[in-house]
Write the structure tokens for this entry.
Amino acid sequence: MPRTIGERSDAIPALAEVFRTHGFDGASLSLIGAATGLGKGSLYNFFPGGKEEMAQAVLDEIDGWFRREVFTPLREAKEPRQGIREMFQVVDRYFHSGRRVCLIGAFALGDSRDRFAACVAAYFAEWVDALAEALRRAGSGRAEARAQAEDTVAAIQGALVLARAADDRAVFGRIMRRQELLLLRK
Amino acid sequence: MPRTIGERSDAIPALAEVFRTHGFDGASLSLIGAATGLGKGSLYNFFPGGKEEMAQAVLDEIDGWFRREVFTPLREAKEPRQGIREMFQVVDRYFHSGRRVCLIGAFALGDSRDRFAACVAAYFAEWVDALAEALRRAGSGRAEARAQAEDTVAAIQGALVLARAADDRAVFGRIMRRQELLLLRK
DNA sequence: TACAAGATGTACCTATCGGTACAAATCGTC
DNA sequence: GACGATTTGTACCGATAGGTACATCTTGTA
């Protein structure tokens, strides 16, 4: 009884790129087929639920990645200020310094929000929570930490919007750097 | 030779709502027809260029509105600090306190960015410029004013993403209020 | 080498897409 | 009321959408 999970998960990065680039509605099965190199037969074998299951798999993968690489390190960093510094590094790398869009942010603004509302809401809530926790451990009061965390996550999402709008990744780096300074000053 | 422009412009608010809600690709002609109360005949009579011309008309309308209600007042306010305060009020009202999404931000993240790249880029560039000008007049140095303006426009866009993701408009108000305080402190 | 299970390509389905053609209704002007 | 121009509804177009059915190929195991 061979486990075939490996194959399915191999398709997810390509799926993520297609959804990121074209959105949920814009990602047609022919685009998906071209990007993954998989025909409809394979696609529907791996994802019997169709496009919706494909997108859900991508969201789950992103959620897992951020939990592993961002949220948990933030919460468990020995030195919270250093943990925050590393969050900015990891996030900058993840978004290719602003060249890459946040799929979950795009879904939040777009047509597909309702379909994946729970995922989308949970992702941002967790990010804010984890960052607030680190800030609190770094010395901020509970309320101040939450406020700073909310502002920072919003700044990052807004920076992605601006970077993509201007087709200029420099703006992303500038906003990220200033936000990091703001959080870690004092 | 009767001027029929009046009719065409009457359809634009409804068009804007459809594109805002469903995105460019998601806004099908049947949705557009239902929202505007216009059949295909009328739609293609007013907008011979089809969906693309409809979306362009909406973008132009938004651009004009912001120029008139936000950018110009920012640049020409007698008292720049008061002008900035009013910008936050007007923007809060425009986005229905976070219940309404920024169409141009959604286009920037979505599939339709390339199609309307010039509009999208110009909108944000103008916003940052106008706000930076006001901040400079309020006493900031040139570089600092630009940085603050960039951060603020990004914060607003990010706040819209978070508000829509969490389906919670309170977060929009919180971020806006803190950003206003940050700009006008000292 | 035989066999079952999984993987894949292809043909096909219905619904809808954006867009066009055009005749009929409507409207402003004289 | 007549006329020309605009406005509108309807039928229709080819293309493509997402999805299903199924026969055929691979593949791992014994």
